[in-house]
Amino acid sequence: MRAYGPYIYRTVNAVLHSPHDAEDVTQEVLLQIYRSLPECRLDGLKTWITRIAVNRAIDFKRGKARRPEELAGEERMSELRKDDLAEMPAAEAEAMEQEDKRQVRARIESLPDRYREVVTAFYMEDKSYEQIAAETGLERKSVESRLYRARNWMKRHWRKEDFE
Question: How far is residue 107's CA from residue 163's CA, in Å, rounded to a whole number?
């Protein structure tokens, strides 16, 4: 970790261009390297480490790009509101938070049936693809596909103004 940590960070940051994300991905890379060391042949170690770092950074970047703009915007609004909520009386802050959740749930209810279940499970119940697949009887790839299509549906049918 001491020998290659800064190198891995620079490599990941070169792909992501975000110091905060690069720190997170660097931690993931270090864990993956640690877990994979028993199978590693030490010839070409730096190349192997670099490949893991670049692949993990690319995966992270793709995952971030797949998230719907509405949900990313919702997270930003949530962070901004946390600052505002700290200044408000507790009852008013709680009421605003409940109203936000109600609006999001109402929007999710407007999704087509084939998407509603997986979106609710993934975003509202924080379940993994594997958990959703097991509960719905779908293949993991089908869950991924439905979430991807649901995000596209949301981008086409929902407007940012509806959440403000």
Answer: 9
- DSSP, residue by residue, 91-113: HHHHHHHHHHHHHHHHHHHTS-H
The full set of domains in the chain, from first to last, is 5-66 (1.10.1740.10), 69-163 (1.10.10.10)
- For tokens 């020998």, what's the residue? 3
Residue with tokens 């609710």, as numbered in its chain:
120
- Contact by Cβ (8 Å): 163, 81: no
- At 95-118, the pLDDT tens digits run 767 776 777 777 788 788 888 888
Contacts of 53 (CB under 8 A, 6+ apart): 8, 11, 12, 25, 26, 29
